[in-house]
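We store sequence with structure; for instance:
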Amino acid sequence: QVQLFKLVTEHYIATAEPVGSKFLVTEAGLDWSEATVRNDLRALEEEGLLTHPHTSAGRIPTSKGYRSYLNDIVWADQKLKKIGREKLEQVAVTTHELYKRQLAKTLVDLTSEMVLVTESLTSFYYTGLSSLFAQPEFKDVEEITNFSRLFDQFERCVALFTDQIDTEVRCFVGGEHPFGERMGVIAIKFGSERDEILAVLGPERMDYVAHVPLVIRAAELLKH
């Protein structure tokens, strides 16, 4: 079940497609029968780690499932890819505020998510909304509408979220943050007073393993 859960979660993160027992047996090369896999998927669903959307026979992770998956990752082993490091380190502009904005835009290019960075204690800058809405989750107009409503109170959401963030990068899923139950957030504090925020917002399905090293390096660069 541990192996099945990991396979379902990582395949869904990569494809946004629900995962069925037939795929797991034929494509993932598991040496188990479909009946055995179906039983174990059902057990994982009963534990609240997986669910199946609408009438689909395939499974996807729940918020509880994502939290379990993230808790099992050894973050110290996740390395920043060379291309990501180079693109972040190539950012060079004249003022600190412009530097923050350009770094945020570079993170959008690298993650295809939305990025938020504080510009002062009372204001913030975000970019990448079109990248966020290009994700498969937002093919549903209702999802775009639900997330768009947040922008009427986005400043309040950021203020509520500030106390949850630390100088060590953290991942938040589902109800752990105020930006919507189907969203995921990676966030970190930086700056001389450790009161500035850098955050990546995306679907709950986003690739945390790839994005976390990028956020860590970007925060390191923003310290200077």
